[in-house]
Amino acid sequence: MSVESKVESGVLHINIAGRFDFGVHKQFRDAINQITAGIKKIEVDLSATDYVDSSALGMLLLLRDKVSCDRNAVEIKGARAEVKKILEIANFSKLFILS
């Protein structure tokens, strides 16, 4: 499990591999602390994520709060079927762009 992040052309890219659970809380917090006024969009790539739990959902909500609840500011992309199903059950499609 790992969280990698980089800023490129005003976009913060966050890649999460393995389990997205409380074990990566500090890494995820470090990643979202990179959000500054120059960041226009955040992309969370879950293509290498094979598990999410309620703490992961909470961390995504913290991210949303940090960008002032703007649905279009955060895109969650590449989620595998089982991960996407959890996001949809939690109605995250109403809070984030899921692609």
UniProtKB/TrEMBL annotation:
Superkingdom assignment: Bacteria
Pfam family, one: STAS
STAS domain sequence ranges: 1-99
Gene3D superfamilies: STAS domain
InterPro entries attached to this UniProt entry: STAS_dom, STAS_dom_sf
Record's protein name: STAS domain-containing protein
Native source organism of the sequence: Methylomonas rapida
